[in-house]
Specification:
This protein is an alpha+beta fold. The chain contains five helices and seven strands. The protein folds into two domains: about 40 residues; about 140 residues, no CATH class.
Length: about 220
């Protein structure tokens, strides 16, 4: 079938001839001397058959540890932030918002680190660095990478959070609530890894519920 380049087909009482340009499951795109047509396989001369559908890949089997991690992420709630700690976080978030509005890169990094450091103290997690700045990178599908939680090192794992402070297309500074939500999202992976002790931090409903609990409290100064 791949060797066939020239085909003919009926069109309004005439027989047209053309060159095959593209094939899909139902039709063939044929280019004539004047127009381009999408022709069903049944009308082509010589006869052609649609390409065989690729067999669907079977779903990846999960190990028992992966299944356990997923269920723990799905079913575990997070404790509310105590009021005394919430006041400290509200101050850091307020200054973070001002830094974003003013485009102050040093202050953005400083108050991002303060926010995450306080959350780690509250929930007794290892401290980690937060890197900010730069513009978001575009994904292949046209979306944007907002931030990332990274692991570095082999014997001694060192983790960090990176959050882009400017948008990919306009390079404007990210809105404070959006930046804060991204920061909490990446911290959520840190929480899952060390508090829940799961190696795979899935985006389960439980994960998003935990993020929402923290974000709802931290964004109060911005409402």
């Amino acid at each position: 079938m791949k060797d066939i380049k020239q085909v003919s087909f009926p069109y309004k009482g005439e027989i047209l001839q053309g060159t095959i340009k593209r094939m899909n499951k139902k039709t063939v795109t044929v280019e004539t001397s004047t127009l381009t047509f999408r022709v069903p396989y049944s009308l082509l001369t010589p006869k052609m058959k649609p390409p065989k559908q690729k067999p669907k890949q079977s779903a990846r089997e999960w190990s028992s540890s992966q299944t356990g991690d997923y269920e723990k992420s799905q079913n575990t709630a997070i404790q509310l932030i105590p009021n005394r700690n919430a006041k400290i976080l509200h101050i850091a978030v307020k200054f973070l918002a001002e830094a974003l509005k003013n485009g102050d890169e040093e202050a953005i990094k400083e108050y991002s680190n303060e926010t995450v450091a306080e959350l780690n103290r509250i929930y007794k997690l290892p401290q980690l660095s937060v890197y900010t700045g730069g513009k978001r990178r575009l994904t292949r599908r046209g979306g944007q990478y907002y931030g990332v939680y990274k692991s570095r090192g082999e014997e001694v794992k060192r983790h960090s959070i990176s959050v882009y402070s400017r948008t990919a297309k306009t390079q404007k500074y990210v809105a404070p609530k959006t930046f804060l939500r991204t920061l909490i999202h990446e911290w959520g992976h840190h929480y899952d890894k060390y508090k829940l002790k799961i190696s795979n931090t899935y985006h389960t409903k439980g994960f998003y519920d935990r993020i929402k609990t923290i974000y709802t409290e931290l964004k109060k100064p911005l409402d």
